[in-house]
Amino acid sequence: MHPDISVTNLYKTYASGHQALKDINLEIRRGEIFALLGPNGAGKTTLISIICGIVNHTSGTVLADGHNIASDYRAARARIGLVPQELNTDAFETVWDTVSFSRGLFGKAPNPAHIEKVLKSLSLWDKRDSRIMALSGGMKRRVMIAKALSHEPQILFLDEPTAGVDVELRRDMWELVRRLRESGVTIILTTHYIEEAEEMADRIGVISQGQLILVEDKHTLMRKLGKKELRLHLQAPLESVPESLSDLQLELSEDGTELVYTFDTSEERTGIATLLRRLAEQGVDFKDLRTRESSLEEIFVNLVKAKV
Ligand SMILES: Nc1ncnc2c1ncn2[C@@H]1O[C@H](COP(=O)(O)OP(=O)(O)OP(=O)(O)O)[C@@H](O)[C@H]1O
């Protein structure tokens, strides 16, 4: 089966001369949740907009479910639903009309049963006759998703789906996205919240300065790039790491009460046994110890920093 989205040697230079994307190659598999991460201005929205046919690319190929977004636009676009960053619905329309109208834009015959299903799945059924302007911010976001699903797309793009929403609504949105995936929809989301990617994504792509610097299964990424810390709470504070232990990956906390040992989770030997033996030899006693894994956030910050 071909991938749902296939991007090959994609470049984008805006009319201003700014090169926003450089040689992007990416495949999105059917039924996965793919999170695209990157700092402000990295090129996430540009990439999504090109795949969705809103922005023209300079060179390269984009296929949606096998259809070329440039030469076979209608077929490619019909496979895609896009939930943009900004809420752009007519405030005076009702929920039902807005969502039904969206379906018509894709040349699909009316299908009230489908619209009903979408509105019910998004807990919007009770609001179907309400005008958009009378809805809460969270409800408006749901309407945007309903619009994007109105023409039964196989692939759904969510650009910053939870920007500026409160924690509770964010959790609701995550739940919703998971349910959509369970129903067979492929999901690509951009986010600034690393926690969101950590929580939701099957795979993660990191884009920095227009280049896709990494695409990896989330768990593999966290295992490969993640570090673990062992923190030893000392019996007596130290002034500095003893000279005799300076060959180890040890740091002293600012107040001198904790020794922090960092090790690679992917390494076969962590060196912990050696560390503990040498501490005992040096008479460095500790009363407590704990380990901590780096979060995706720390991994991401290091990746993007390394690139700059
Ligand atoms: N229409 C345009 N003309 C010229 N430059 C543009 C245009 N749109 C975007 N850019 C530039 O292209 C780069 C990538 O922008 P893009 O919006 O894709 O980034 P992003 O990763 O989505 O950022 P954010 O996280 O802030 O939304 C930025 O430097 C931006 O200023």
The helix tally amounts to: 10
Determine the fraction of residues in helical runs and give it as a percent range: 25-40%
| Unique bound compounds | adenosine-5'-triphosphate
Silhouette = elongated
In CATH, the topology of the largest domain is named Rossmann fold
Mean pLDDT: 88
What would CATH call the homologous superfamily of the largest domain?
P-loop containing nucleotide triphosphate hydrolases
- Provide the structure class: alpha/beta
Tell me the CATH architecture of the largest domain: 3-Layer(aba) Sandwich
CATH class of the largest domain: Alpha Beta
Number of strands: 14
Ends distance: 38 Å
- How many structural domains does the protein architecture include? 2
How do the strands line up in the largest sheet?
A: 6-7-8-3-9-10
Radius of gyration: 24 Å
- Please outline the major beta sheet: 6 strands, mixed
- Parts with pLDDT < 50 across at least 5 consecutive residues: none
Strand content: 25-35%
What is the N-to-C order of secondary-structure elements (H for helix, E for strand)?
Answer: EEEHEEHEHHHEHEHEEHEEEHEH
